[in-house]
Amino acid sequence: MKQKITALFILLCALSASVGSLSAQDKDFHIYLCFGQSNMEGAARLTPADKEGISDRFRVMATLDCPDLGREMGQWYTAVPPLVRCNTGLTPADNFGRTMVSRLPEHIKVGVVMVAIGGCKIEMFDKDNYQPQVAVAPDWQAPMIESYGGNPYARLVELAKLAQKDGVIKGILMHQGESNTGEREWPEKVKKVYNNLLTDLGLNAADVPLLAGEVVGADQGGLCASMNRIIDQLPQTIPTAHVISSKGCTDASDNLHFDTAGYMELGKRYAATMLDLLGVKHDIWPSAWRNPVIQTHYTPDPAPVVFGDTFYLYTGQDEPGYGFFTMNNWRVYSSQDMVNWTDHGIPLYLEDFKWAKDRAWASQCIERDGKYYWYICATTQDGRGMAVGVAVGNSPTGPFKDAIGKPLVEGSWDNIDPSVFIDDDGQAYLYWGNPTVNCIRLNRDMISYSGEIIQMEQTVESFGGVKSRDRSLTANNKDTYVEGPWFYKRGGKYYLLYAAGGIPEHISYSMSDSPVGPWKYMGQVMPLQPTNSFTNHCGVIDYKGHSYFAYHTGLLPGGEGFGRATSLEEFTYNADGTLPTILMTRKGVAPVGTLNPYRRVEAETIAWSGGVSTEENSKTGVYVSNIHHGDSILVREVNFGAASPAKFTVAVASALQGGTLEVYADGTTGTPIATVAVPRTGGWEAWQTITVPVTGQVTGVHDLYFKFRGHFDRNGDKLFNFDYWQFAK
User: Given a cut of 50, is residue 2 above it in pLDDT?
Assistant: First the structure.
C-alpha cells in the first residue's frame, strides 16, 4: 500500500510539474529558431557599441555553456552578442530581434535560439544524413560541430523544445546556401529540414513561416551570388517560405560574408518581413523592397496588358480613410524594363460617363483595329446598381471618352469587375460579376454584343463550390467564386482566375477547353497572405519571355483595406500548364531592360519613392509634386554606356523657397554626381530648366537616387515640383 501511495505521489508531482510548465508558457514571448552557416553565425567582429542599448525584451537562449560570458546552456539571457557561440560575431539575428522589439507592443518579448556552423552544407541539419558531413568536416570546423554534441540539428530541436515551455515559436530564420552553390536540389533539401523541424516540434507550417536570406549578391561582388537564383525559388517548393533579399547589403573583403552594416540591414529586412507576416504595421522600408510597384498613389485592381513593346498597368485609385471603397477615377502606368514605372496620370474619370454616379471600380483595357477599349464599372445615376461601361481612345494612355453614352451592360449590383478577351478566331468576350460569373460575346465593334448574357454554373467541380448566396445548399464546398474575374488563353487552354473564398479573399482559378466552359476548378493560386487588405484582385500576362502576376495589397504607408496598391510577382508555369502557388513578396520582380539617361526622362518615371506624389494638368502633363526635405526617388538600371556624361539637366518649379536636388549613383552616401540648386521660380507651374556639371566618372549601369533637401533642413515645407531630367555627354 505504501508503495502505491508513493507511486501515486510521484505521478501527481509529475502531473503538477507538467501543468506548471504549461501554465508558465507566455503567449507574448515570441521565439524564433535560427540556423545556417557562417553568415548566420556572424562574421563581423564585435565592437563595444554592438553590445549597448539592447532591450531586455530581446532574449537569447544559450545553446552551449559559455563560462566567460556567464551563460549556461538552456537558459535565457538578454541578447547581448555574441548570440551563437561563445566567440562568434554579429549576426542578422541581432538586428532582427532589436527591430522586432522596437516595433512590437511593449508587452511582447522576442527570443532567439541559434545553431550555426561556418562552412556547413544544408545536409548538416538533415537529421537522417548529417553523419557523412561530420565525418568529412575539416579540422577548423570539427570543434564547432562538437560544441553542439556532434549533432547540430538535435541540439536545435532539444533547446527549441525547452524554449516552447516558455514561449511560442513564431518563425524559423535560415541563412545558408554558400556551401551548396549551384545545387538545384537545394530547395528540396531545405524543405526536408523545415518539415522535420515542424514535425519534431509539433508546429504547423501556416503558423511558423521560414525566412531564408540570400547570400552576398552580385551587386557586391559576391562569390556565391549565383546561388541566389536557387534561393529565390524556395517559395515554389515551400509555400510558407519567404526570401530575404541581400541586394545592397554591404559585404566584407572576402566577398562571402556581410560586414556590420550588411548584417544590420539584412536583419532589418528579416524583421520587416516577419512583421508583415504577423500583420503588424511598421515604418520599415528596406532599400531592397520593390513592392508595391507604385508608391505615389493607391492603385487597386491592377489590369496588366502588353501593347507593342510596353507593359501597361490599368488601375483604380483609392482615396483611403473613408471606411469604404472611395474611388473616382482610373489611372495608367507603363514600363519597358519592369522596374521603372511611368505615371500617365488619370485618362478616365467617373465624370466622363454621364450615366455614372460613383464607385470607379475594377477595369481592363484591350486593343482592336488600332483603337483601345477600356471596360469599366460604376454605379448608375438611376440607382439600379453597378453597370459595365466602355470608353475608347486612340492610344493606350488616352484621351478616352465614353464610347456609347450609356452602359454596355445595364445596372445590377452584380455587375462589377469586367475582364475582356479576344480569341484566336476574332471573337471577343467580356466576363464580370459578383457573386455570379457572367459572359457576353462582344461584336466586332467592341461596344455592343450579340446573344444573351451567359451565367456560368457554379459547382464544386467548376469553381470549388456553389454561389456564395447558396452556400447553405451543400456542405461539400472546397472554395467559392466571389468577384474579380481575369480571363486569358494559353496553350489552347482557357484560364479564369478570380477572387475567392469570401472575406478575406484569396485568388483561385478554373480551366476550360472553351471560353464559356464547362469549367474545372484547379485550386488556389495566391492563398491568403499578410497583405493588409481583405480583398484581392489579380491579372496575369506574359512580357519579354516572362510571366507576371499582378495583385494588390494594403502595404503602403497609410494603406489598408480601402487603401490598396499594385504589386507584381514573376512566376513559372508548371510543366502541365497549371499555375504554381504564388506568394506575395516585397522584393518584386527583376529588371528586363535598362533606362537610357541621354533622352528626356519624365520625373514621374520611378522605381521607388519616399514622400512624393504626382499631379497633372493639361499644359504640363504629369509631374512629381509634394517634394519635402528628406524625400527621395529611385530610378533603376540606368545605362550610361562606356563614356561618362558631362552635364545634367532638370526642369523644376517653385513658388516658395526652392531647395536642392542631389543625384547619387547606387546609394545616398558619399558625394553626389550632380547637385542642382533649385531657386524660387515664381510659381508652382513656372518651370525653369537648369543644367549643372556631372562630377566624377559614371559609366555602365547604375541605380540613381534623387535626394531632395530644403535650404534649412527642416521638414514640412513643400520645396518644388519636378518635371523631367536628362544627362548629356
Answer: no
